[in-house]
Amino acid sequence: MIFEEPDGATPLDPDEIQGLKFGHISTRGELDELEQANITQGLQWLGRRRGGDILTDDFVRRLHKRLFGEVWDWAGTYRLREKNIGIDPFQISVQLRVLLDDARYWAENDTYEPLEAAARFHHRMVQIHPFPNGNGRHARIAADVLLNDYYDHHPIEWASGFDLQADSKRRVEYIAALRAADAGDHDLLLIFVGAT
């Protein structure tokens, strides 16, 4: 079974689909519902979390596992295959470490305003694309946790009433902003997150 993906989504390969814990799922809509229920549980876990540095490899993996671990066997495990987006899988750990160190530096040295720091963090996390799937949702939540823990700032209104998983005007704007940032222009992404 191969799910029809919205524009900008990472397709799952057959081996990754084998990691689905529920064999009865046959449509993208069913999968989205199942993942959203797991994400809700993950957000509850985040709400109960007490301290600990979020800018660590361990936290990045644990967050992904909490968000998707009830759905996918491989949740919290870095991808091993090339995708339509993302860096070489063998560079994930190194580039993620660079991102986490950069984000810590930005916060400690007031390099960027909070929303810009979160937008840049989010973009680079998506650009690295550490996991087989769920990277956008994971990166948005991780950026919000960064805002809370390092800047004492409210979360970003990523969806603004729309479903970023489904094709919508907001998703088109989001994907366009990420693609522009890939080319070195962060203006659309900063507008998208409300930083300008």
Report on the architecture of this protein.
This protein has 196 residues and is mostly helical. It has a single domain (15-193), classed as Fic-like fold. The chain is built from eight helices and no strands. The chain has helices at residues 14-17, 28-48, 57-68, 92-108, 114-128, 135-151, 169-182, 187-193. Helix 2 (28-48) packs across helix 3 and helix 5 packs antiparallel against helix 6. The protein is globular and about 50 Å long. The termini are far apart. 32% of the residues are buried.
Largest sheet entry: none
Principal-axes geometry comes out as globular
CATH class: Mainly Alpha
What is the end-to-end distance? 43 Å
Helical stretch count? 8
The helix fraction, in percent, is 40-55%
Rg for CA atoms: 16 Å
Overall average residue pLDDT: 91
CATH topology: Fic-like fold
Classify the beta-strand content into a percent band.
under 5%
Q: In short, what is this structure?
A:
This protein is mainly α and 196 residues long. 55% of the residues lie in helices and 0% in strands.
List the main descriptive attributes of the protein structure presented here.
Fic-like fold, globular, 8 helices, 55% helix, Mobile mystery protein B, Mobile_mystery_prot_B, Fido, 196 residues, Fido_containing, mainly alpha
